[in-house]
Amino acid sequence: MPSDSADYLGKLPGLAPQTSVDRPVTASEYYHASVGTSRYTLESPRYVFFVLHGSCVDAPDEQELTQKLTQAIAQVSACNPILRMRWHGSLGHSRWLSDGPLPRLRVVSECQWDGQSSAGADILDAPGLSLRDGPCAEFIWASQGQGRGLLILRSHHAVMDGLGGMHLLSELFRALRGEPLLGSNAAFSDADLMRAMAITSTKHEPYDTCTLTGAPAGDDVGDDWWRVRFGPVQPRLLSKVALALTEFAHQFSDAPVRIAIPVDLRKHVPGMLASANFANMLFVRLNKGAQATDFDGQLREQLAARREGAYPAIYDWLRWLPLRWFDYLLGRRLANFTTRKPVETVLISNMGKVYLTAFQSSIFKADDYTVSPMPGNAFVVLYSIGDEISMMISLPRILSSNGRKQALVAWLQQRFGEANGDESSSGGCNESNACKS
C-alpha cells in the first residue's frame, strides 16, 4: 500500500523559496544527459523546445523588445536557479551547482520557419547548449516580419521537463507584466521524492510489444515531428487517443501494445513549484481488441497505488556508468537501428489544456503554442487550445516511410475530426498532473 502522505512529506525538506542549487544529478537526469554522447550512436542531444507564436503588441522596435526580454530573463533566473545550473564532477559524483551563466537571448531575423514541424527548424539545432560550461537553456526571439514572431524556450532535457518549461515560460510573462514571480520552492529532487514515498518496485517481467506503424522499413536514420490539429475536445481524451493508436498498431501486429505515460510527481507535494525533471513513467499494456476502459482501468490502478513513485534500486547504480557507455547501450546505432527492440509502442505525454492568456504582455501576445516531442520512437504530445485538440507527433523515418505517416494522420482525423480553424483561447497556464484524462 502507498505510504501515508504525512510519512513521506515529513522526510523531505520543507518548501521554501530557492535561489541556488547544490545537489546530486539524479538517475533520470543522468540518462537524459547521456543521449547523444557516444560517437557510435545516431542519437542527438536531448533538448526540449517550447514555441510561442504571436505578435508584437504596439510593434516595439527590436532594441526595446530584446532589452525587456533580457531584463525579464534575469528576473526569472534569480528565483528559478535551474536556469543557471552547471554540471560538476563525473559518474556517481556528478552534481548540479547554480554557478553558471544566465540563459542567453538569441535573436534570429527574417525567420522562415513556421514552428509547426521539424522541417526547416534549423534555429533549434545550433549553437549547442553546454551542461558543464553553460548556458543550459536559452530563449530565442525569431522575427517573422509584419509584427509576427516566435518566442522560444530551448533547454537540455537533463535540466527540465515539459511542465517545468511551461512554468518558466509563465514566469517570463509574469516578469514582462511586472507581476510577482512564483519562483521555485523545492530543495529536493525527483529521486529524493521517490525515495521518501518508498513505493516498492514491481518485479520486472519480460515484455513483447510492437511498433506503432508496422515493421521498420528503409534506411533513413532520422526522425520527423509535426503538428496535427483536431477538434473539438472530447471527454476522456487521453484514453480515446490511446485506444486509437492501439487499434492503428494492431493493423500490423497481434502483439500487445505498450503505451508509456509520463506522470507528474509534483502532485504528491501540495504547493510545490519546480522546473526540474519531476516525472516518472507508467506503462499500460493493451491486447488486440482492448477498449478504452481497459486503458483507464490499468492506469487508474497504478495511479491509486502511486506506482509512478517507485524508485528501482538500479537507479543508484546507473550513474556509475560513463555517459557515453550508457548512450551506446541504449541508443540507436547503424548496427541496430532497424532491429532494435522497442521499449514501448508509443509514448503519450498529456499536457492538458494550454491557456494562451498566460503568455501575453505589453510587448508580445501569444496566439498559438507548439512543443517538440522527443526523437527515437513514436512520441505524441497531447494538449488542447480553446476547444481544439493538438497532437505533436514524432516518428523515426523508418516507421513513417511508405505513406505510413499519412495513414496515421488520416486514421486520427477519422477518430477526432478536422480542426475548425478557430484559434481563439483564454485563461491561464495549466501546470497540473501530466497524466490527466
From TrEMBL:
Entry-linked InterPro entries: CAT-like_dom_sf (IPR023213)
Domain of life from the UniProt record: Bacteria
Name of the protein described by the UniProt record: Diacylglycerol O-acyltransferase
Taxonomic source organism: Paraperlucidibaca wandonensis
